[in-house]
Amino acid sequence: MLQKKKGLASFFMATLIVTLIINIIIAWVVRSASKEIDYGTFLTMIQNKQIESVKIEANRLLITPKVNENSSASDKKIYYTGALNDPQLVERLHTAGVKFSTSVKDIQSPIVTFILSWILPFAMFYFLGSFIMKSLGKKMGGGGVMSFGKSNAKVYIEKKTGVTFNDVAGQEEAKESLNEIVDFLHKPSKYTDIGAKLPKGALLVGPPGTGKTLLAKAVAGEANVPFFSLSGSDFVEMFVGVGASRVRDLFQQAEKNAPCIVFIDEIDAIGKSRDSKLGGNDEREQTLNQLLAEMDGFDSSKAVVILAATNRPEILDKALLRPGRFDRRVIVDKPDLKGREEILKVHGKNVKLDSRVNLGEIALATAGAAGADLANMVNEAALRAVRMGRDVVRQDDLFEAVETIIAGKEKKDRIMTEEEKSLVAFHEVGHALAAALQKQTQPVHKITIIPRTMGALGYTMQMPEKEKFLVSKDELIEQIIVLLAGRAAEEVIFNKATTGASNDIERATGLARQMVTMYGMSNKFGMMGLESVQNRYLDGRPVQTCSTETSTEVDREVLQIINSCYEKAVSLLKDNREALCKISSHLLDKETIMGDEFMEILNSI
Ligand code: ADP
Ligand code: MG
Ligand code: ZN
Question: What SUPFAM superfamilies does its record include (predicted)?
């Protein structure tokens, strides 16, 4: 508050100085444009008929001289002289034929002059200045330049979030755990009477886009209480101590508004473990300490529930996770098949769907997609329907949207040579045949050689018949064979290798490596774990836990799997050369063929 007063005073001073300077400048301009003469000179000028007109003001006379041919521009000055008490003045001017006048507004009282030249500009500058400062302050996200110590939590308070559990699909377990919190906010006494303490906080953990933020809003919506939401990064500021004071403010406001929900999104921004080796960050640590203190400080009977979300739970400070703080962990993982279908239904309600649309099929094709991806797909499909001039969204719009998100947009204008095109066709049919000829692979859904913006020159889309949670060793081997069959087809038909197989190779090698290091599927290492996954909810990158010698051995094992799979792929395609050629030429004609068409040709051979 001290800062605020100080700021106000200096702002007042600045305005005053500006007004002063402006008045001085005006006075200077006026003076340099006119010249004072004495009364005698004035009378002489009248007699010599050198005067064009005279303006009579309250205490001076403004004299405009006549312009004669030989006077230069600089002579066009206006003269003035003090007004003497000269009763004959009017008489003199009249006989000399000088125009003369006076105006009402010139005879001002000094008070009016003072107001006009001092108070008015001052007030104008003051309002202009404070307006600019206010809008600047808003842009900076704070409560104004002069009050950066204050919380901006106010900005984010939502009386009603308008989101309920019905808007969140496919997260039944998470909803169940949060239901208790909703009930508590409705009727705290039910719990406090029996002596039960409710968790002060719940931590929503899961990959990006699975609906953590949405769930927190839904809890507030269900409980019908105000929702204070802040992102972890909102606390982190340039000035040490600002974050801590924001935390303090936030909790003060929350207690005033109880029952309510305080939601800290992306809490890892401030909740990072304090024992990091890279040197501490004073501001962040102070903010975290304040948060810990506040969470201890308020008593849970007040019905303030703190929710937080993160996708990196492993880096959070242990102190945050101990009982009495965020002691409840709600996992919000990627949805399964049923969950995906439900999410599609929720978002499908917002668009006009054709009656033949089968959302279950779309859900099957989108394994691994999070809620945000699915919401995006429905919207992409609607956009495509509009582009096609339709007024309802059809199944093919939805499929195209899925492909757009997986592989990018179609690039029909890319010109490829006939040779390249046929190479791509054989490559893709190689994948498709390897998939169709093995027993435990997913059926082929679509083969296309229309290039996509994300680099693919063509692709084969497989679709599972049902969702599986476990994959066997045989299935993994078959998957690797399918991935390598693209290059195998190039080799079998054209006897050459191209760069087109790089993505296949990367994926096949990744699978083979996981078999050896994580799934215990190699003869050499058996059940030994050689890699562990970090950042499970983000990229899930594996980190080696074995020695370098073992790592060399691992590479050898992986190479062996890849090599034997590639040999199998080559022999599979050699045995089915006729089908490979026939389907490829059909694909070259049509550019895209669907799974059933593909199977028809294959079965007819
Ligand atoms: P997170 O916070 O987990 O990264 P969000 O809650 O911000 O993800 O989700 C982003 C958007 O994705 C939501 O606004 C919603 O439209 C959609 N979405 C995500 N998960 C779901 C879900 N389970 N049900 C319905 N919509 C979802
Ligand atoms: Mg979020
Ligand atoms: Zn390929």
Answer: FtsH protease domain-like, P-loop containing nucleoside triphosphate hydrolases
